[in-house]
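Form P-L/3: holo structure prediction, ligand flavin-adenine dinucleotide.
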Amino acid sequence: MLSFRCTVIGAGAVGLAVARALASRHRGENDVLVVEQGRSFGTGISSRNSEVVHSGLYYPNGSLKHRLCVEGRRALYQYCEAKGVPFNKCGKLVVAADAAEEPELDILFEQGRRNGIENVERLTGGQAAALEPDVRASAALFLAETGIFDTHSYMKALESDIAADNGTVSYDSEVVALERSGSGYVLRLRSGEEFGSAIVVNCGGLGAPDIARMVGLEPEAMHPCKGSYFAYSGGHRVTHLVYPIPEKGLTGLGVHATIDLAGRLRFGPDVEYVASTDDFTVDERKLEAFQGAARRLFPAIDAARLAPDQAGVRPKLQGPGDGEVRDFVIRDEIGRGFPGFVDLLGIESPGLTASLAIGEQVAVLLEKA
Ligand SMILES: Cc1cc2nc3c(=O)[nH]c(=O)nc-3n(C[C@H](O)[C@H](O)[C@H](O)COP(=O)(O)OP(=O)(O)OC[C@H]3O[C@@H](n4cnc5c(N)ncnc54)[C@H](O)[C@@H]3O)c2cc1C
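OUTPUT (holo model):
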């Protein structure tokens, strides 16, 4: 039977970044394999998101989300620069719409200081308006380190790096069974093909809990949480990302305004716990709520120009009504009797931003094993 040193399941941004970190350390033949059920990379969460490079402001100090977001963001900008991946460090405003919201802004400002986020400024309403003339703000934070990037080009660059280090990415390769065998694991694909691997890294995104169960683990409960977007058609003057005060319990960052690299304006994502992981329809009945959220940020906006756009689903560990922010799980399951099996669970936002740092974290975890 063919056998590999490391197999990464899932070719999203995180799986590719993990495989890149592993392949750069082990450049031999059959050392690193990525198996992906889709026909190409990034067909999951990694292509249904805001494409924002987050600063790391919001996450509990010292959490993996905080630490890996900050490290990942710095590494990501350098990587984009080196590989010619398009990005725009456009900066972001978090706005207090009125005086009543300003204490929340102060808490965030303090959190940014504690989290060691560079270049965060407290602005008056007038200063915010100088940056974004159409925004309504009684005060704001300006985060100069936040930006946007081209996630497709990023994943393509990661895939090339893996190939350059003799790694293999295999598409149309859905893992349907996994079992412990000797000092490693045997994986079976839907095609019936079987192969062995000493190390398995589960980067299955929304499918990660099912993959963990295949080997006999009982993973944390996942609560799929849809985020829908509405696109704005027509001219606008928005040049920064503009966010409201985040939602209580950080289930979402509040419906915000993002621009993409072509300057297109979108609002979203909202927060909707759902039963299914593959229903990406955007409910048109949300139009009124999105119009309200858009007007709250930009009072003069022509809200009739909003139309349903795409949706993505977050693999949340935090359930509905659960006030506790849950961290990423990145764990060698040796403690549960599965050495060399690494689970990545709950990799929601800021997973894209953190992806390179997550890759390093997994590689270091396996070096210690
Ligand atoms: C609405 C929304 C907005 C977001 N905005 C941002 C943002 O602006 N910035 C940011 O940093 N993060 C953001 N995120 C989070 C970010 O998109 C994710 O953390 C990241 O894309 C997760 O990547 P992944 O590789 O873990 O998952 P995925 O991209 O989903 O990759 C998992 C892969 O595993 C494959 N797979 C699953 N099961 C199997 C199997 N059995 N066999 C083979 N393959 C399998 C899937 O096909 C998939 O390709 C957002 C997320 C959402 C939902």
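COMMENT: The mean pLDDT is 95.
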